[in-house]
Automatic annotation (TrEMBL):
Coiled coil: none annotated. Zn(2+) 1 binds at residues 507, 510, 547, 550. The keyword Cytoplasm does not apply. It catalyses: Couples ATP hydrolysis with the unwinding of duplex DNA by translocating in the 3'-5' direction; ATP + H2O = ADP + phosphate + H(+). This is Replication restart protein PriA. It holds the Pfam family Zn_ribbon_PriA. Its cofactor is Zn(2+). Belongs to the helicase family. PriA subfamily. Binds 2 zinc ions per subunit. GO terms for molecular function: hydrolase activity.
């Protein structure tokens, strides 16, 4: 096989296929699928990924592969297949699908070095090449005339490593280590030959006689009060030797983790884990939903399932939402599995992520805990994939390739014949519906640990506050309860929906909100035209001057930011110490941890924040949680708004009273009678599911229908309208009767960064030709997409509908 099939790093339709390159003699038998190469492409030399090898080509003259970047594949065969599938599913370029699976560092070419590993004998010619050094520049190897094949063999046995030199800060760090070069008996003999005055040498040799393990040179110098020259003398005598050991930039290196033991499972946990262990035993693929209220011991079930996977010599992927990747969560996994765990989250630098990835690739860890992209961990013996908080929308990538980690998990689970466990207290409707139908196996945990109950939720009707003359955004009850906690030196969490979404109009007297009669979503206020529009179907009404329900004139635009709440809070309770957490206060790296740290140490009384404080927090002293306005969650123009409200309220409530002190939750709302708010206050997921499903069916939304969202944007509004109109007309003419194509409609966020945004929404049950049709659209506009400012994004199963 002397031809490599290469996907090149040029994202375009013409180049969205493998190109053939001749493999030059020096790389013959060395190049494998999954390796990166540099190839000539037009006048340039670019990066590409080898996806296959062949002997046959239609071309008569092939250009040669210019350079091979890896001696070991960076993508496994399974991941190459996943890349194809993902490109197909998300309508992305194959190059984008391959690159999304790799750490940033591997998306470019870096200088390489060749390092020998400690204690390995190398063939003569390599000994000559290294000439006493531990590492050399790759170019030196290339000039040596030694074959790539020989180098590759040594890389495969682990006696040599290739290192990518990723700029000074990001590059691999090594530390010099000292170890004995002779056996203890030989060292004893050497002791005899030492002169009496050589105390320092004696100390060192004695140390290595009793403890032959390698020691970092620096530590040796410090703890033996010795010098580098003493060590050098012993090395010259052939008694000690030095090598470089890679130190991983472990972000948790400064913390020690207390080892934890598995709990004896409760009866309920036993029942839930039994089918998982059974499937693991049989090495079968199956998707299971672990539906359990917060604090019911789901994580313990995950931990013990993973233990079984490790015991079988296999590997586990554990996904948690980015926001839940708090030290607390990491601690539980590190505490149970120690150094067998790699952690991947966005706060790591590119170099740190690369380090963690390499530990996975080398098989040094068996467990990965990480956010969305950890689903691509290059394991080859996957035994289980677990997705905690499976309903979280952060599992969907919002840029190309727009994959959902849940779908990738199921794909990989099928390939590896292993189970996929989806866990949540409030599963997505899609998942729960599948579990109810029996497509997924349903496992339930209904009780909290230690008979603890969920905190009591009190709904406060803000309309009544207004009628009683209280115009503040704090109800009287909430204010009193906060004062009470301040007096008791207990802590409070106040939750506000993220700002910028205040696109709706509500009557403050009766809570009435105008909804689209066709789509069951809140209509979006357009200031310029003084009108309300449905951004799914374009239905439009003019802005009323009084409430259509109660004729009050208090109908207006709604919404407040966290900053505003903080100001009001400071006026209301000047003695309270407030920590505010929102996008503005957490922009800097580490700010998130810093603020939470302050609150955790009791340096503040109130934590005020957006979504980002809803999850994973676990503070002993929090006994009150307040939700400022549940309505601003409920009235985002999204068919999932009720589901999101239910999930968020449940999650926020879970922040209170997690320990010995009982907790209380206050939810302020103008619509306490709304089923999602009412049922969240009694934690009744099943009832919520039933009610919400009826609406989904009536208005043709998932899980009854699939949705595809096409969003067009351009600085020129007419252009956007025209293109969207064409797309709508084209799709309408091609799709079946059963499907509904809505649009062109201005998106709820109609203008972002001076670009107008319009959309077309397709609701369908079965449209096998859909991807082909949409691809034709992209191809038709390809030149404009490249040269003009036109953008068309296609999102299958979208979660962001703004
Ligand atoms: P969830 O993941 O469902 O929120 P956790 O697994 O975090 O629940 O469990 C809640 C608490 O109960 C944790 O502090 C955990 O250590 C503890 N716990 C879990 N399982 C057991 C058990 N079988 N026996 C005793 N304590 C347990
Ligand atoms: Zn009204
Ligand atoms: Zn509508």
């Amino acid at each position: 096989m002397n031809i490599a099939r290469v996907i090149v790093d040029v994202p375009s339709f013409q180049t969205n296929r493998p190109f053939d390159y001749r493999i030059p003699d020096r790389y013959e038998g060395v190049i494998q699928p999954g390796m990166r190469v540099i190839v000539p492409f037009g006048p340039r030399k670019i990066l590409g990924y080898v996806v296959g090898l062949t002997d046959e080509t239609d071309l008569n003259r092939l250009k040669p592969v210019e350079e091979l970047l890896d001696l070991q594949p960076v993508l496994t065969t399974e991941l190459l297949g996943l890349g194809d599938w993902m490109a197909e599913q998300t309508l992305s370029f194959r190059i984008s699908a391959l690159q999304v699976m790799l750490p940033q560092v591997l998306k470019a070419k870096y200088k390489k070095e060749v390092w020998r590993n400690e204690g390995e004998d190398l063939p003569e010619q390599f000994e000559r090449l290294f000439a006493g050094r531990d590492g050399i520049d790759f170019t030196e190897f290339e000039r040596s005339g030694i074959s790539y094949h020989q180098l590759q063999k040594l890389v495969q046995d682990g006696s040599i490593e290739i290192e990518y030199i990723v700029k000074s800060k990001e590059s691999k760090k090594t530390t010099p280590m000292i170890q004995p070069a002779k056996s203890p008996i030989e060292l004893e003999e050497a002791l005899v030959d030492l002169t009496k005055s050589a105390h320092k040498q004696r100390d060192l040799i004695e140390h290595f006689i009793s403890e032959p393990e390698p020691v970092p040179k620096k530590l040796l110098v410090e703890s033996f009060q010795t010098t580098a020259s003493t060590i050098k003398t012993l090395m010259d005598k052939g008694l000690l030797e030095q090598f470089n050991q890679e130190i991983y930039r472990d972000p948790y290196k400064n913390r020690s983790f207390e080892r934890t033991e598995a709990f004896e499972l409760t009866e309920e946990q036993e029942e839930a884990i039994a089918p998982i262990l059974d499937v693991l035993e049989k090495k079968q693929h199956e998707v299971m939903l672990l539906h359990g209220v917060t604090g019911s011991g789901k994580t313990e079930v995950y931990l013990q399932s993973i233990q079984q996977v490790i015991d079988q010599g296999m590997e586990a992927i554990m996904l948690v939402p980015e926001i839940a990747l708090t030290p607390m969560m990491v601690e539980r996994f590190k505490g149970r599995f120690g150094s067998r765990v790699a952690v991947l989250h966005s706060a790591l630098s590119a170099g740190e992520k690369y380090d963690e990835w390499r530990r996975i690739q080398r098989g040094e860890v068996q467990v990965v805990v990480g956010a969305r992209s950890a689903i691509f961990a290059p394991f080859t013996k996957l035994g289980i994939i677990i997705i905690d908080e499976e309903h979280e929308t952060s599992y969907k990538q919002e840029e190309n390739p727009r994959y959902h980690a849940r779908d990738v998990a199921v794909y990989r689970g099928e390939q590896h014949h292993c189970p996929v466990i989806l866990g949540s207290a409030t599963p997505s409707l899609e998942t729960f519906a599948r579990a109810k139908k029996g497509n997924y196996r349903m496992l339930s945990l209904t009780k909290r640990m230690n008979e603890a109950s969920m905190p009591e939720v009190e709904l406060i009707d803000m309309r009544e506050e207004l009628h009683a003359g209280n115009r503040s955004m704090f109800s009287r009850v909430l204010k009193e309860k906060i004062e009470d906690r301040l007096a008791k030196k207990e802590q409070v969490v106040l939750f506000l929906n993220r700002r910028g979404y205040s696109t709706f109009v509500m009557c403050r007297d009766c809570g009435f909100v105008i909804e689209c009669p066709h789509c069951d979503i809140t209509m979006t206020y357009h200031r310029k035209q003084e009108s309300l529009k449905c951004h799914y179907c374009s239905h439009e009404v003019s802005m009323p001057s009084e409430c259509p329900e109660c004729e009050s004139d208090s109908i207006r635009y709604f919404g407040t930011g966290t900053q505003k709440v903080e100001e009001v809070l400071q006026q209301l309770l000047p003695e309270a110490r407030v920590v505010r957490m929102d996008v503005d206060t957490t922009r800097r790296k580490g700010a998130h941890e810093k603020l939470l740290g302050e609150f955790g140490r009791g340096e503040a009384d109130i934590l005020l924040g957006t979504q980002m404080i809803a999850k994973g927090l676990d503070f002993q002293n929090v006994t009150l949680v307040g939700v400022m306005t549940a309505d601003s969650l409920l009235n985002i123009p999204d068919f999932r708004s009720a589901e999101k409200t239910f999930q968020l309220l449940t999650q926020v409530s879970g922040r209170a009273g997690r320990h010995t002190k009982p907790g209380e939750v206050i939810v302020q709302t103008y619509t306490p009678e709304h089923y999602s708010i009412e049922l969240a206050s009694t934690y009744d997921y099943h009832q919520f599911f039933n009610q919400e499903m009826q609406l989904r069916k009536a208005f043709r939304y998932p899980p009854y229908y699939f949705i595809t969202l096409v969003t067009v944007s351009h600085p020129n509004q007419l252009k956007v309208q025209e293109v969207t109109q064409k797309i709508v007309a084209f799709m309408r003419s091609k799709l079946s009767e059963e499907s509904v194509t809505l649009g062109p409609t201005p998106s709820a966020l109609t203008r972002i960064k001076n670009r107008y945004r319009y959309q077309c929404m397709i609701k369908y049950k079965h449209e096998p030709e859909q991807r082909k049709l949409l691809k034709r659209i992209l191809q038709y506009y390809e030149d404009e997409l490249k040269q003009d400012q036109l953008q068309i994004s296609i999102d299958f199963q979208p979660y962001q509908l703004m």
